[in-house]
Amino acid sequence: MQGLCLCIPTYRRAHLLKLLLEDLARQRCRPETLIIVDGDPESNEVAQMMDGTATQAVPRVRYVASSHANLAYQRYIGWRVAQEEKAEILAYLDDDLRIDQAEAVAELVAPLGGTEGSVAGCTARIVYPEDREGQYGKVLADRTAQAKAKQSVLVRWFGSSRKGVPGSLSPAGHRCPPETAPSGHTRVQWLRGGVMACRMGALSEDCFSHDLFALSELGYGHGEDTLLALRLAAKGELVFVHSATFLHPCADAPKAYATRARKMGFGVAYSRRLLNDNYRWPENPRISDRIALLKSYLGTALLQWVRTLKAPKAHRFAYAWGYTLGAMKGIISPARASRLTPGINWAADAEMALRESKKTERMSKSESVSEMIGALN
Questions:
Q1: What is the CATH number of the domain that holds 327?
Q2: pTM check: above 0.70
Q3: CB-based contacts of 286: which residues, under 8 Å, 6+ apart?
């Protein structure tokens, strides 16, 4: 499709990325430019995979070696490359997805309608296997079970999304599912990072956050797609496309955040502060937003401890303790890149990655991608 760039951030999943690229080759709507942002370029696995036939169905491929295996930062790099390619639409897909619907990409980007229009971003349905995070470990299995369980008294009293309408987003970053529909699209206040498309005219430098890069670098970047959505929503509408479906086989553990119980609990809680800070971006959050965050912290912490005491398990204790610490940190200290990653210059690292990508572009067309990356290393 003319004007469409597709960015896939990847990290140590060359075998899964290859399967996704093969699915993309069967799409009716294929991108004009494919952008691969590799978070593990030293292994050379992605570069070697790209030497095969998986990318031949795409007119142009841009490979970028990222110095950080950081999903939020890699998406930012993808946007910078899409600017150079003069794209009109930028779509993001996670590297472990599969697509069995031939019209999925076409349906996803359809509401954007080129460079003009009221819609700034789109997302779509992701289908998980029955055991979903159960394949990843006990902590994620517990979180899934809690999400499906009947609301407890604590959730009804303290939950920041208990009064939310379909498709809305709470001040603590909790999403309300959209209304169901067989086709078309409905307005929402969030995007799912695994599958989203944005109008390039709505994306700008301020849609991305160095504070989020830092939070993600430490493994605490839960809700990174929500923060991008909050900033993008200031430029136009966000919609959920009901006719597009993508598959998530859960073939590998999450890479964007920590999966160990204590660190995950801390990250889930602490990231809520950054989402709350951006809830009404570019304006500051209101007092009512801060109160909603505090209530969410209190209610969720109590809920985790009650569940832990009712059915004691080591991982539940670790998660509850981590969440409590993360909530306390969120109350007293906002997430700032200057404090979290003082030794990283995100702007300089991005410029270096783009320069190296251009060097790769200028090298001989007769060389393979892996040879070119090896030469740069």
A1: 3.90.550.10
A2: yes
A3: 280
